[in-house]
Design goal:
It is a single chain. By secondary structure, the chain is of the alpha/beta class. A 7-stranded mixed beta sheet has the order 1-7-6-5-4-2-3, sandwiched between helices. A 5-stranded mixed beta sheet has the order 8-9-12-11-10. α15 packs across α17. The longest helix is centred in the C-terminal third of the chain and has 20 residues. The structure holds pyridoxal-5'-phosphate. Pyridoxal-5'-phosphate binds next to α4 and α5.
Length: about 425
């Protein structure tokens, strides 16, 4: 039965059998018992599906994986210990040393550190292009060692909207998967597989959990990429650690998710904890309600900030004057999520404003029910040089406001009193 997204948020991922608990139980266990060595050998050889050790898979994490798979319309998902782990696991599944990825450069600060420094040390190069790059600019970066194109549905913190059709056309033409970090949009506001993405990444720490309880990440495999073009020998050729099995031949459209789990997750162990999966699944039951309210509140606050003379610039794709408004109408018609970036006159005003807020808290976080602010230049993007800051689209006077689900009038009152104080 085809379900609406609101129904899927509540119902997908777990169906109890007769007499079982109505909500998915928390299986806080490392291991699982079997009757014979033969049973366990079949699991190790990937001949049978089942749980044997929670580094690889756990029933509670599986419920969350099934929920996000259904919401995004993919074929399989892998839970990880954090969003950063999800990104690292994805790149490590696709690339060997010497390979490269082409990425839009308006990325989350943690991703910028990973891409610009840590991956480079491991021999994987990330080639950055502007988020509004032309097809030609994207293609110029691609060579026979390129293994994917990467972007964020809504950039953190610049809230630029990815031009899916342009990025996916270039990816398709060059036999490359389009990898999209859709943390800020969530499947409620945008479903990237419908626009040509092949792999979706979430920091579930943010809206999916929504309540600031659990760090976690998810990778969703769209099942819509052909790994047999010759660009991905690691997917088609025999894997020595599984008696010469080919992931592409054996697992077909779920080859990426199975390979990510059974090779890199197995070896690196950046596994999602069952407790975190349980809390995140619970949070996701209200995701559709929350994203609607986050988006409504953010648009109202965006309009309020736009009207204030202390605010020198503002970025929110829901605002008509925003350069990404047209793209947001196409890709985010139901709402543009809860994050606004804006600038006061200078760095001093920005920090004074943040210090004067009463209801809206200063926290290194984004995308939870409680409104919060952050100063990227001195926090999330602190490790970046001035030049890198500029490339990532961060200004010293920039404030990132994550709009929660409180009453909008209370939020406006708090912003107003803090703005009054910076004059
Ligand atoms: C927070 C965030 C990440 C990293 O996620 P963690 O769960 O903190 O590791 C990645 N991408 C985006 C867009 C984020 O906002």
């Amino acid at each position: 039965m085809k379900k609406h997204i609101e129904t899927s948020c509540v119902q997908e991922g777990y169906v109890p059998e007769n007499g079982e608990s109505r909500i998915a139980p928390l299986v806080q266990a490392t291991t699982f018992k079997y009757d014979s060595a033969e049973d366990v050998a079949a699991l190790f050889d990937l001949e049978k599906e089942g749980f044997f050790y929670s580094r690889l898979a756990n029933p509670t994490v599986d419920v969350l994986e099934q929920k996000i798979t259904a919401l995004e319309g993919g074929v399989a998902a892998v839970g990880t210990s954090s969003g950063q782990a999800a990104i690292t696991l994805t790149i490590a599944t696709l690339c060997r040393a010497g390979d490269n990825i082409v990425a839009a450069q308006n990325l989350y600060g943690g991703t910028m550190n990973l891409f610009g420094h840590t991956l480079k040390r491991l021999g994987v190069e990330v080639r950055f292009v502007p988020v509004n790059a032309t097809k030609e600019e994207l293609e110029e970066q691609i060579d026979d060692k390129t293994k994917g194109i990467y972007g964020e549905t809504i950039g953190n913190p610049g809230v630029e909207v990815l031009d899916f059709e342009l990025f996916s056309a270039v990816a398709k033409k060059n036999d490359l998967p389009l990898i999209v970090d859709s943390t800020f949009a969530t499947p409620v506001l945008c479903r990237p597989f419908q626009w040509g993405a092949n792999i979706i990444i979430h920091s579930s720490t943010k809206y999916l959990d929504g309540h600031g309880t659990s760090v976690g990440g998810l990778i969703v495999d769209g099942g819509n990429f052909d790994w047999s073009s010759g660009r991905f020998p690691d997917f088609t050729e025999p894997d020595e650690t599984y008696h010469g099995l080919s992931f592409y031949e054996t697992f077909k459209e779920a080859a990426f998710a199975v390979k990510a789990r059974t090779t890199i997750l197995r070896d690196i162990g950046c596994t999602m904890a069952p407790m975190n999966a349980w809390l995140t699944t619970l949070g996701m039951e209200t995701l559709a309600l929350r994203m609607e309210k986050h988006s409504k509140n953010a648009l109202a606050l965006g309009k309020f900030l736009e009207s204030r003379k202390e605010v020198s610039w503002i970025k929110y794709p829901g605002l008509e004057k925003d350069p990404y408004h047209e793209l947001s109408k196409k890709y985010l018609p139901k709402g543009q999520s809860g994050v606004i970036s804006f600038g006061l006159k200078n760095r001093e005003q920005a920090t004074k404003f943040i210090d004067s807020l009463k209801l809206i808290a200063l926290v290194v976080h984004v995308a939870d029910v409680r409104s919060c602010v952050l100063h990227p230049a001195s926090m999330t993007h602190r490790q970046l040089s001035d030049e890198e800051l500029k490339k990532a689209g961060i200004e010293p006077e920039q404030i990132r406001l994550s709009v929660g689900i409180e009453h909008v009038d209370d939020l406006i009152a708090d912003l107003a009193q803090a703005l009054d104080g910076v004059q």
